[in-house]
Amino acid sequence: MKWRSVTGVLCDKNIPERFKSKVYRTVVRAVALYGAECWAVTKEVEQRLSTMEMKMLRWMAGITRLDRICNQDI
């Protein structure tokens, strides 16, 4: 999976957030949504994609649920 291969870049504190977000949008999101146009879009699929994206964004930012930061603030 592409996420595991780019975690070194995305989780590195020394790399600027702007670069990390660009890598995330161009590589990780593209791979995650590859073939999505032929999926049957249900509420469950939407929720799973949203959950996956939020987990990855939290991981990139070094924020856990224990930090009690709302998803909207990330």
TrEMBL record:
This is Reverse transcriptase domain-containing protein.
